[in-house]
């Protein structure tokens, strides 16, 4: 069994990006600029945005965080998005989710200019992804594809089982894995909370993508020997022995599953660091204007 080291891969990729940005700046060009909108005081969102700002520093990007109180109205937030859409010095931006309950997330995401939608959440990018057109691909799925690629994992003709149907992970990773590409060319089954015979379906999988958000849900009796297991779960579970008071727990029962598979991603240090890395890659692409240049 080989552990897929997302932390190391993400560091390598950030170094590659930083070298390209240093060359851009050397040539007299402006570095990429990522902006993040953060609404309210959600602890998880604060950490995610802080990690994104740190990754920008590592890559030599400019970054800005626009913070708003959770009393901001939907219209005020959309006005802020329109300002960023029109700001020539911002190449890409994200609206950190979740948003407070009184704000309609779909309406907010639709307001983002898809040329600057480095999260790949805007419906134009999602639609383009689904029919294989150039687009910003959402960060976690493209991080998974990058790991499969860099670890030389053969995917053509393999049966990939995705557990979870979220817009951010389950649906887009299913789209990417089924596309005629390497990595890709898989036969994909998407399972969810209403799926019958989940265990039997998982047992047929050459590649399992666990993205349902239930700690240690995937047990060793659901995994075919030699399968590739990608764990997207990052649930915070209380842990009094940690200074933070919690630990991150994946969707896979790692200790038992690891013994059965050929490759596995740990939590933390697997898919998580790759997500931010993909956001950096998208921001660099946005700066270079290379995604929609047809
Ligand atoms: N909330 C959880 N993950 C993400 C992400 O990748 N992007 C944004 N904008 N919000 C999130």
Describe this structure in words.
The protein is of the alpha/beta class. 39% of the residues lie in helices and 16% in strands. It has 10 helices and 11 strands. The strands form 3 sheets. Strands 1-11-8-7-5-6 form a 6-stranded parallel β-sheet. Strands 3-2-4 form a 3-stranded parallel β-sheet, covered by helices on one side. A two-stranded antiparallel ribbon has the order 9-10. The longest helix is centred in the first third of the chain and has 21 residues. The termini are far apart. The relative contact order is 0.16. The structure holds guanine (GUN). Guanine (GUN) binds next to strand 4. The site of guanine (GUN) has 7 residues, from strand 4.
Amount of helix? 25-40%
- In whole angstroms, the N-to-C terminal distance is 43 Å
Low-confidence stretches: none
Strand order of the largest sheet: 1-11-8-7-5-6
Query: Structural class given helices, strands, pairing?
Result: alpha/beta
| Rounded radius of gyration (Å) | 19 Å
| Biggest β-sheet strands, sense, barrel | 6 strands, parallel
Shape: globular
Average of pLDDT: 97
Number of distinct helices = 10
Q: What is the succession of H and E elements?
A: EHEHEHEHHHEHEHEEEEHEH
Proportion of residues in β-strands? 15-25%
Number of beta-strand segments: 11
Which ligands accompany this protein? Answer: guanine
């Amino acid at each position: 069994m080989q552990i897929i080291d997302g932390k190391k891969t993400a560091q390598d990729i950030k170094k590659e990006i930083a070298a390209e940005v240093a060359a851009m700046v050397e040539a007299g060009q402006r570095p990429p600029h990522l902006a993040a909108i953060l609404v309210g005081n959600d602890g998880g969102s604060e950490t995610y945005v802080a990690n994104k700002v740190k990754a920008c520093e590592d890559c030599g990007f400019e970054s800005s965080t626009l913070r708003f109180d959770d009393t901001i109205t939907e219209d005020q937030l959309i006005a802020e998005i329109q300002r960023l859409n029109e700001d020539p010095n911002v190449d890409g931006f994200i609206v950190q989710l979740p948003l407070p309950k009184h704000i309609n997330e779909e309406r907010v995401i639709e307001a983002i200019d898809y040329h600057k939608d480095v999260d790949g959440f805007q419906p134009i990018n999602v639609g383009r992804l689904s029919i294989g057109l150039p687009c910003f691909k959402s960060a976690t799925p493209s991080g998974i594809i990058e790991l499969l690629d860099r670890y030389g994992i053969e995917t053509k003709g393999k049966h990939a089982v995705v557990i979870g149907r979220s817009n951010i992970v389950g649906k887009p990773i299913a789209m990417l894995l089924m596309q005629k590409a390497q990595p890709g060319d898989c036969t994909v089954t998407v399972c969810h909370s209403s799926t019958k015979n989940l265990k039997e379906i998982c047992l047929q999988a050459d590649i399992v993508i666990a993205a349902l958000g239930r700690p240690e849900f995937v047990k060793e009796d659901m995994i075919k020997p030699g399968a590739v297991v990608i764990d997207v779960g990052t649930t915070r579970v209380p842990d009094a022995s940690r200074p933070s008071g919690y630990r991150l727990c994946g969707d896979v029962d790692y200790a038992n599953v690891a013994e059965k598979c050929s490759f596995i991603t740990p939590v933390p240090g697997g898919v998580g660091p790759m997500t931010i890395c993909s956001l950096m890659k998208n921001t660099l692409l946005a700066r270079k204007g290379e995604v929609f240049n047809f």
